[in-house]
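*** Query protein ***
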Amino acid sequence: MSDSETSNLTGHALIHSYLRLLDNSPGVYRMLDDESRVLYVGKARSLRKRVSNYANPNGHTARIAKMISETTSMMFLTTKTETEALLLEQNLIKQLKPHYNVLLRDDKSFPNIVLTTGHDYPMIGKHRGRKGSKGSYYGPFASAGAVNRTLNQMEKVFLLRNCTDTVFEGRTRPCLQHQIKRCSAPCVGKISKEDYAQLVKDAEQFLQGKSTGIQTALAKDMAEASEAMEFERAAALRDRIRALTEVQQTQGINPRTVAEADVIALHMENGQACVQVFFIRANQNWGNHDYYPKTGAGAAEAEVLQAFIGQFYDTKDPPRVVLLSHDIEDKDLMSEALSQKIDRKVEVAVPQRGERAELVNGAARNAKESLARRMSETATQKKLLEGLAEAFDLHKVPQRVEVYDNSHIQGAHAVGGMVVAGPEGFIKSQYRKFNIKDTDITPGDDFGMMKEVLSRRFKRLLKEDPDRKTEAWPDLLLIDGGAGQVSAVQEIMDEWGVNDVAMVGVAKGVDRDHGKEEFHRTGKRPFALRHNDPVLYFIQRMRDEVHRFAIGTHRAKRAKAFTATPLDDVPGVGASRKRALLAHFGSAKAVSRAGLTDLQAVDGISSALAETIYDFFHDKG
């Protein structure tokens, strides 16, 4: 069959035409529509056998049948093994986000507790991201709140420092942490190196799940202190025992027979899914997190759970055991893929009895309850969006509302903020900040700043998605401001030829009172909503959120500016060399006035770099 004949085929016939090109190699296939958008990415032990299934007109679910009918072309990649195909499949799904695949929408990293090494008095603290610094890492914890609660109690129990090495070296007297009995003050010699090392060892044992011995030792020390009439020391030991008990209680269920596992449970209802992940480490429950994956237009439970696991562990190291609520299609293959990732055996199991099954049942119960709450909130949000459409005479119910605001102090450190709301509430991953770059804008010109923000926003949208194939285009813009702001934004929309996106200005109203907002639209008279209208509260909530986001961004920019120095712009001068220069000369101004010989005398500054620094400051003059 010629390429021209193939190009006229669709659906089963089109898929059947590819069989002559395929063998039984493992690999990954992509199904594309008539606009070359990827509909689905799948993996196969044998590409020929898997594709032949799609070529058969019978035996498909409604979801798969619809996907096949929309397919106008396919792409194939062969791999050496099926495991390699599985890993490639998940990578492509995350990159391409096909409509018919299950998608993990929230893929953030999780915090850990780190005990640093390479110092006489190690520090304990929270760590998120790449494990670059030397130390022992314990985690993951399900949230910042979970790790903060554990650290808060551990400071009371083990009295380890949480300050940076720089702060530690500069202390001449104990800090507040010591005063409130949360640090043993090694910085000023309040504890010996040997005794501090014992505290570190105890903390490590606790984080490894060996807390019984610590509690026994503390109780023994408290009894001895009481007998010796050292009541102050006995009271301090009592407080440490109490803190240790509290941290064990906040962790909830601590399994006896499961030392290390992720417990993953799925609940599906009305086409929506919730996956609960519980983190068990060192026989302790380190919290849980819920996810709401996109179910790929109606995938079954086994497919949803398998896709979730593949995408979830794409950027995370799996534990020794992964316990599931439902069986998945390729359990052994998934186990092999996860084992390869960390070079040790990873067990993937669906427990039927015992403590493992109890853990899974508990996670499943949480998943069911979380999905019920989510569906209730979504229903409320849907009604509010419908109310928004009615209030502003919109042609359709908005699925994406973008809200804008500026923040500055007399024009200084000006930023614009954008927050996004949709049927599932605020979409924080879509929030954007805009550093105001136009130097011709008069300081404090809110109209000029808003015009720059919206101009950059629409310019990018038209560049990245001119045909509006993605969900990135807004249905409604809410602008913090009145008629002037609306007029300024309308100019930008006209300039970029965007005439089908509704836009409303939200002004403070009489006496700038909360609840007396006026709404401005191009070519229409301003109006207000009833004081107790739920839609009004919804708008106020969105405006407060963008205000909070813009102010937070502005404060961060202002704080960064306060600590900035001209040395930040010198090529080749990083954080350590900047510290060395400031320590040697006392200020950035003194560095700028220093001679070449003086610069060369600074530790870590080579002759070539000294020349670069000297030229940088003297060329400016």
Q: What stands out?
A: DSSP finds 21 helices and 19 strands in the chain. The longest strand covers residues 412-422. The longest helix spans residues 354-391.
